[in-house]
């Protein structure tokens, strides 16, 4: 008996914008990362431009996501941390493990990334629509965008 196996779906690029990144919001943020890792992305960029605080628990989550991506051939990068967060990342030596971009990170093709389609968080239940206006996700701490 032959069992047909469905090919795994992969997404070339996922961007996560985080505004709060500490122990208090770790369950929600971890759930977002779990969902996006299930897509087997080739590249994940965490936009920290709107984030004012990061703690050791958040750094641990970033390292865990990095390890999981490396296992599947993916890459995790950080974008636009403010100077205070950049110093924290340097003190934790995270900047030696992950690429940290001061400005817009290039897309997987190396060009400027197009405007993102917004994929709402765990409570949306639906796929991203390119024509949809960006909305705040139900949990209010992270916005996930998927670019193809």
General description of the model:
The termini are far apart. The protein has a six-stranded mixed β-sheet with strand order 4-3-2-1-6-5. It is globular. The chain is of the alpha/beta class. Helix 1 runs parallel beside helix 2. Helix 3 links the parallel strand 3 and strand 4. The protein has a domain of 103 residues: STAS domain (Transcription Regulator spoIIAA), CATH 3.30.750.24.
Task: Give the overall form.
Answer: globular
Describe the main β-sheet briefly.
Answer: 6 strands, mixed
Write out the strand line-up for the largest beta sheet, numbering strands in chain order: 4-3-2-1-6-5
The count of DSSP E runs of length 2 or more, i.e. the number of strands, is: 6
What structural class is derived from the secondary structure elements? alpha/beta
Beta-strand residue fraction: 15-25%
Give the CATH topology of the domain at 13-107 and 140-147: Transcription Regulator spoIIAA
CATH superfamily membership of the domain at 13-107 and 140-147:
STAS domain
Classify the helix fraction into a percent range: 25-40%
Kindly provide the name of the CATH class of the domain at 13-107 and 140-147.
Alpha Beta
Radius of gyration: 15 Å
Concise description?
With 148 residues, the protein is of the alpha/beta class. The chain contains 3 helices and 6 strands; from the N terminus they run βαβαβαβββ.
């Amino acid at each position: 008996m032959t069992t047909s196996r469905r090919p795994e779906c992969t997404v070339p690029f996922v961007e996560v914008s985080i505004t709060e990144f500490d122990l208090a919001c770790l369950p929600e943020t971890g759930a977002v990362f779990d969902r996006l890792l299930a897509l087997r992305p080739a590249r994940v960029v965490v936009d920290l431009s709107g984030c004012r605080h990061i703690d050791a628990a958040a750094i641990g989550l970033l390292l865990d996501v990095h390890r999981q991506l490396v296992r599947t051939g993916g890459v995790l990068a950080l974008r636009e941390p403010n100077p205070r967060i950049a110093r924290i990342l340097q003190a934790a030596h995270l900047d030696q493990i992950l690429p940290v971009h001061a400005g817009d990170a290039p897309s997987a093709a190396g060009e400027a990334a197009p405007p993102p389609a917004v994929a709402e968080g765990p409570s949306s239940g639906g796929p991203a629509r390119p024509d949809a206006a960006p909305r705040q996700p139900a949990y209010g701490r992270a916005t996930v965008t998927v670019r193809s």
